[in-house]
Write a structure and sequence with these properties.
Layout (H helix, E strand, L loop, with lengths): L1 H12 L4 H6 L4 H14 L4 H24 L9 H41 L3 E5 L5 E4 L1 H7 L16 H4 L3 H13 L3 E7 L3 E9 L8 E7 L1 H36 L6 H33 L7 E4 H18 L3 E6 L5 E4 L1 H17 L6 E9 L2 E8 L31 H11 L3 E6 L5 E8 L8
Parallel strand pairs: 7-9
Antiparallel strand pairs: 1-2, 1-5, 3-4, 4-5, 6-8, 9-10, 10-12, 11-12
Amino acid sequence: MGNLRLGLLAAFAVFGGAATTALALADASLVLVLVVATLVLAGGGLLWLIAGLVEGSLRVIAGAAREMAQGEFGTRLPAEDAGELAGAFREFNAMARSFESRVESASQESTRLMAAINSSVDAVVAVDEDGEVRFANGAALRLLGTGGDGLVGDGLVGKPLVWAAADRELIEAVRSARERGEASRHVIERPNRQFFEVFVTPIAGGGDWALLAVFHDMTETKRLDDVRRDFVANVSHELRTPLSGVKSVIETLQGGAVEDPAVARDFLARAETEVERLVELVEELLALSRIESGELHFLEQPVDMTEVINAAAERMRPNAKQAGVELSLDVDGAGQEVTGDPSALERAVVNLIDNAIKFTPEGGSVSLSSQAVDGDVTVRVRDTGAGIEPRDLPRVFERFYKADRARQRGGTGLGLAIVKHTVEAHGGRVGVESELGHGSMFTFTLPRAVGAATD
């Protein structure tokens, strides 16, 4: 009977003092009633709270049930009572197995939930009443940059939230949510122009977790907004210059210059130049827009890049000669076949050469080369110009971006953007290297056509 008493004691201990009362009862049926009542009280929401405490007790009681079923207590209880109690303990044992299964299922569900939270790209942080972090998922480490290791925000937990995001509006939002229960949304900026959209929400019935803060990284969205604003400003600037020139010509002619044939012809030539510039700008804008939207479908046919490069070089030699720049060509052997649109690829090479000539002073040189290595064909355009500032290198392929307007010799500012999108549409990639005072080298690499000959 010692195992039974021990099991009952363990089962009732979680309810404070109930075990002592049960052991004082001599009637086994009353003991059984209290056991069942205990299980009823343990149902519902309490299952989650006492799971760890009663697991050992259930095992002890189950052992006692097995001993009773084998007849150990048969001589001390009437057979009818012993059979009834043994049946009750068998049911109790089945309930114990069901309880254990539910606890295991809940544990697995909790594990899956935590895995999902830690896989989120948004930083999720739970804060207590004092503003200290009680939970942080893996994204909190990556986005807020607090250190630590693993999937849990070790570098955040136990520290005030404001240490990770010391923003005045966020501090006020946390205080307001804690005191008034108000949800709010804020945009904060962190070092290196990193922007976050933050949602602060009170947690009802969250225990120590009073607030939930979700950080969504909107740095790229902010960057794209800046690019769009720059684009509008640059288009306005590029259109205003030629339009102002045409307007000036018209006003001069209207002022009487039209009566002088020589002067009239000179001003009409200027107007024609500005109009051509406008036409070029509009055509390149349309071409870039069609490439970016996927509306422009490039041909897919075998293309020998040596032929493309030779054609582009011959096309640009007059421009180089006029600018006093030497244009050299070095094409490395055969095996430079790719798949694509020869006209579009030639235009990309022409744009690179044109850009190099514009930024190379008189007496300088521009070299054009290509090489097939392994599965790629690489085209390089190197100049001896003034070079590009390191801060400008990541943006030189953006629309209208001009690294140094003071040395800009015309152009729409769209040539490098067209090169980038054309090459990427052919499955390639672009790059640039530059050093101030030592010129620049623009490259693009395309995958070789399947079955291309090798040296």
